Amino acid sequence: MTMLWIIAGLVLAFGFVAFFGAPYVPSLRGELRRAFKDLYDVGPDDVVVDLGSGDGQVLAEAVRRGANGYGYELNPLLVLASKLRLRSKATIRLADMWSVTLPPETTLVYVFSVTRDSKKLGNYLQKQADLRGRSFTVMTFGSHLKEFTPVKDLRAHTLYEIQPNK
Q1: Which of 19, 43, 48, 129 is the most exposed place for a label (fewest CB within 10 A)?
Q2: How, if at all, do strands 152-154 and 108-113 pair?
């Protein structure tokens, strides 16, 4: 009976997120490293924000390269896993990404995107650029942001520059 409750808890923790955003999909370390080198060379001058930060793989790579990292995740189990993995080297918050304001010093936003949320994500990112009054770079993994023209891409990763509206 205890095992049934554990399974039900895991299904609930991971399943409910699908109604609010993208499902948990672990990042492939090799592809992420290539993207953080060839698409956008993440380094010590960067502040990387991972929207839907999952298990913290993206932030761990950003921190390994000297960047500051912020992660926002809806699943409390993944927030805990990220905090244990990163041991205070990045800021992880239990939060719905749609309701957060990006830190002003953000240089790169990383997000796993799904076609269903493409327009909503584009609107959110544009609003963030408008609030800040300056541009920032976005790297998506998955579907494209139809409202923006890609700067470059590498397999499933695509890079965009989000400019504020004047």
Answers
A1: 19
A2: unpaired
pTM: 0.86
Query: Can you tell me whether residue 73 is helix, strand or coil?
Result: strand
Between CA 162 and CA 160 the distance in angstroms is 6
| Dihedral sign computed on CA atoms, order 82, 44, 123, 35 | negative
Q: Which residue has the tokens 């999952």?
A: 54
Give pLDDT tens digits for 105-126: 999 999 999 888 999 999 999 9
Instruction: Please give the angle made by the CA atoms of 56, 57 and 63, to the nearest 5 degrees.
Output: 85
pLDDT at 5 over 90: no
